[in-house]
Amino acid sequence: MGHPRALERAKAFLFSHFERIFVVLLVASMLVIHYLVDEKLAFLSFYYLPIILAGFYGGRRFAVMAGVFVVSLVFFFQGIVGLELLPGFYLGALLTLVPWAGFLILTGYVVGVLAEDRATRLTDIKNAYLAVLELLTFHLESTERHQQGHSQRVSVLAGEIAKEMKLLEGEVENLRVAALLHEVGTRDPRLLKLLSRAVTDEALPVARAMRGAAEIIAEYGHYYEIVGEDWEIDALPIPVTAKILAVADAFETLQMPTPVRPAFSKWSALEEVEKGAGKTFARDAVKALRSVAARPETAGTGALKVV
Questions:
Q1: Distance of alpha carbon 58 from its chain centroid, rounded?
Q2: 128 to each of 26, 132, 138, 210, 243, how far by Cα in Å?
Q3: Which is higher by pLDDT, 282 or 122?
Q4: Rounded Cα distance, 124 and 197, in Å
Q5: Number of helices followed by number of strands (H, E) in the chain
């Protein structure tokens, strides 16, 4: 479990610092080519690769800026030391470099536009899937009046706790989907099989979320069979996402009235959850819950959104 998580964190670090790493690598490659390679003009095509990557991961604006940056460096070297040509900007040098520079920047712009269009369509698909899941949970909960909206509120709260605990974006997405379906999944294991088989395209974020959600629901299904007074919860092999779901579910459940007890107030529910910290609930998740609960409520917090 530790190795895949370390890889995910490494990927998250790479993408969060992509622009800085990209610029450093560009400058380093430029220095290597111009000081160690004799056929410098032949290596100008090498710069199409980083520009394509910049467009794919950074969008058209970043790709165009990266292209301008590369062109500026190449022209700087041409003006100072020359690229298999005499230094300076005479007609022969310009006829060689200007068309290359134009096509390089144009390539970055086109790839960036296509990447942004792809990202927009993926977001639309994710929103459509999540909207269907919301409708499903509202329909299933409509038979029990006191349960209406429970799963959706748990989903929003679990996502906020996960963000407070600095979980990866993919883990937060999996947790939000699992929270939407946690009531159904723990009652009917057939849902877990449906989630794991329904979507087979692993390249699609929705598919990964569905499979990840199924794993979280399966873990949460026997969560209360494992935790108790005998062991510290941090010593138990329970994924952090399942621990967060348990905290969010308990906190929201306590605030709903039942036939045998009235609803707890927000802060009374928080105190009840805190009593179980370390045994029934993970301490770090409870601490994050307190931070989230202390925030002022804003309009629209009950809607599940994907950005």
A1: 15
A2: 39, 6, 15, 13, 28
A3: 282
A4: 22
A5: 12, 0
Partners of residue 261 on adjacent β-strands: 258
Q: How many CB atoms lie within 10 A of CB 19?
A: 15
**Interior CA angle at 201 toward 196 and 205, to 5°?**
85
Answer left, alpha or beta for residue 282, where phi above 0 means left and psi between -120 and 50 means alpha: beta
Question: DSSP letters along 50-105, please?
Answer: HHHHHHHHHHHHHHHHHHHHHHHHHHHHHHHT-SSS-SS--HHHHHHHHHHHHHHH
Single-letter amino acid, residue 129: Y
Q: What is the pLDDT of residue 6?
A: 62
Q: What percent of the chain has pLDDT over 90?
A: 24
Distance CA 268, CA 254 (A): 9
> Token pair for residue 177?
């989907």
- Who contacts 118 (Cβ-Cβ below 8 Å, separation ≥6)? none
Domains of the chain are 18-117 (no CATH), 144-293 (1.10.3210.10)
Q: Which residues of 111-121 are buried (b: 16+ CB within 10 A; e: fewer)?
A: bbeebbeeeee
What is the Cα–Cα distance from 253 to 153, expressed in whole angstroms?
10
